[in-house]
């Protein structure tokens, strides 16, 4: 009867958890802890130490092994043997010993915090633990705990953090004697810090780790382990019914079901383990010392088992499985950014997906015979591990390199766009050298594979994305039968990257027929038959023609696709042959853009009515598959294998030694053959991916203007035979080094003020740096001071403009206009510059330069947020650069440009307000986290968190370089703001031991601390010019505050900002990007009406910088407003009302004559 009552009580508790969804866990809802008296007494750990071995009445089962005692450490970890723990800095996952780590970190409890633990057999606590287990793992309803181990770390402080940064967390291990579950509990608001200061001088901060490690070396980790995302665990997504902040692991015997497997199921055991325990296809390991080229999944698994790789197989359900690596390995851990999801998961090898938390957010866990698989929900399609909206367009990016017709090319980027509901794909590669661009257009498989991925399927067939989830290897060989030429294509698709975009890496090598520039390339509509030769392997063999000009060139195409599939999916459509119909093919190379472009429609159909499957009863043997060619069954070897006798059945396929037959490696690399694949590895002293290896000197030499496109607008890129590379040279009439060119007459005076210095057949024109100089009219050549007819072009001398025209008085033109010749008689008139419209006397911004919105950075994108609720404009992506990580952003309201920093490419870029005219304006800027522009003085300032300095550059002369104005006593500079009229800059430094907000004159002088009390992580900063307030948002104490510019009148505006990163002021509201909410939030400056803002459709990823784009510039002025303050290079206004002229750091003393 007592047992019945306990079961009834447990059922009620489970029911309550199911229907009474708790929004978040509070400290009061933790398992009771800190009991110093009574029936059960807690053990206490003091002085940051470790307990003695603590005996258990019921053993803990960890990865199949039972442990009858535990050792609890103050560092947030439980072990089972006495070991020197160290810290996560010298003990990264995977640990070399078994452990349960809810928050392994360098915790100090000498002065702050309490650590307690005990074992309990109280029925109410057992019921509570059982309820959590049953809700997280519905298939474990028979589990009943006999004891629970409860360990709690209350208000603990990390090394180097302020003593008011306190964390509270708990682990409960539920044990039945034969099985165990670990439950990690993180109360809302109780995880303030996720990293500690390194104990080694000069080393970066160390992130905490969270997970479970078995004696077998297998690891289950929480999402975000080793990243700052751990701070979000209290609000992370968990299985429905569990409170937020509760994360469960099955740590005991997660593969007990194997005892009841049928022989057929057991035969698929290896495939099961790979599918349920890892991503669909293991990402290739990368050795920092020897970068690798593409290798097969088989090779990757082998090397991981030997601990030679660094690939980290990360499950979408929040856990990771990794093979143990040598403790002495020199490796750098860089965890990928992950989105919140439930952390409960089974170990690798469980044949079921348990619940949807292991699937994509838009998928469900579907029961199959012998197990379960992920399936996309209504309105989405994919393989369940990845699902995309059927109606939304998709993008794919990646890298392209190779050797075609003897010409090497590399570092080209892939930009693909897919109209999903139409099955149409657009594929583009750039830059592709002109020498091979046209010829590349004959190699259709580089694009048709994307067509297969997104083809419109009929009658239940699956396209490539539905089969693979976007994670697979593709090889293709194109043979031009008449010329004997062939080209080999290797492509690796790796699913979603950190920016939530599909990613691929393509390499091709070989020879193709010559194509004369300008010749048209046409592909007729045709079809390719794809057959599943084995689980996770698809092959095809087809023939077609490409029309080059008037010549039709026949070719054959052999393809192989390998991926991993759910072994329980018995859908008969998976084994059906499918015919890909390719139509409306466009193949075009654009020489001026150096861009290769393809477009096509794709549709998948079954074999025609009455057609027999010629491969149905054909046994092709090991490492081989059957394909249909002209209605006949043909056996072909799998990729990486070959046969000596193609007519035998079954085929005898042996490994191809690619290192001998088709060595695609660099001459400075070694080629290592393996079963079915090979590896390229650069030799010592060379850098590269193995296919291309260069010395450091050669790599630097390749940074030519042809690649960088860094010439002045009045210069061209020319070959320099002496230098052995492309160099910039100024055009006739201009002088300079090519990267900066000025009119030749500029040394003789400023024609803007003295137009008479120009020849009568010349006009005064501003160069790319905004300086005025004389330039000869079309049909004339010279230095602008003296112009003569060019060649035989003749041309009549243009008349001198009449008195009173802008020729004699350029000042009558608008500041956004220039005085230039117009009309047949050569009259001079004011004309608005590009981006502006009007009569020249008055110019206004074109729509592309209109403000009145918020701009923010997100991953690879700069995004517009429309804030006018009555407007139909909802914003959207303005500019996207594949591969970039856009962080800081600011606005130049004078010339209508947005400027942002790319910390991946080490550049500062800009674009127009509408996203046009994207260009990099500053290079080799290592980590500019904060940007600010003085629109009056035409200067841009930034904080560099890598070099710990603050620098400035002239907007109109950025190629002259920048000036570091502050480089001492900075620890973690982030946000920066300027006040042009006051001549002051403001910045935040979130040094955890001494966070502060400082100010200084724009030249770095008169530096002082403005705020240094009650700060946590002051990330965001903004100046309100209307009220002369300085406002900031603090990610440590979750506050938004303001002070007067002199530091007085500090006031709280808003409390509850989850994790602010950047801030701006717009129309009496404060807007900030919030990592915790992954959204943009705002509040009135009076403190009311706090609200989130709906992000534009298509935006995804973490939000970083934010800036207000005003309709017009604020009315401000300073000493540098006119004529650059008389300075040659950079003019910096000072609080005194005067100015300071400074030179960029790269300018020599002989040139720096200020």
UniProtKB/TrEMBL annotation:
Basic and acidic residues bias (residue ranges): 265-291, 319-335
Example of a GO biological process term: cell-matrix adhesion
Ranges of the LDL-receptor class B repeats in the UniProt entry: 896-937, 938-982, 983-1027
Source domain of life: Eukaryota
Keywords: Basement membrane, Calcium, Cell adhesion, Disulfide bond, EGF-like domain, Extracellular matrix, Glycoprotein, Repeat, Secreted, Signal
Disulfide linkage: 711-728, 813-830
Domain EGF-like: 655-694, 701-742, 747-788, 802-844
Signal peptide: 1-24
Polar residues bias (residue ranges): 347-357
One MF annotation (Gene Ontology) recorded for this entry: Wnt-protein binding
Region (Disordered): 258-360
Example of a GO cellular component annotation carried by this entry: basement membrane
A Pfam family of this chain: G2F
Domain (NIDO): residue spans on this chain: 102-254
Compartments where found: Secreted, Extracellular space, Extracellular matrix, Basement membrane
Biased composition (Low complexity): 301-317, 336-346
Record-annotated Nidogen G2 beta-barrel domain positions: 392-614
Name of this chain's protein: Nidogen-1
Native species: Hypsibius exemplaris (Freshwater tardigrade)
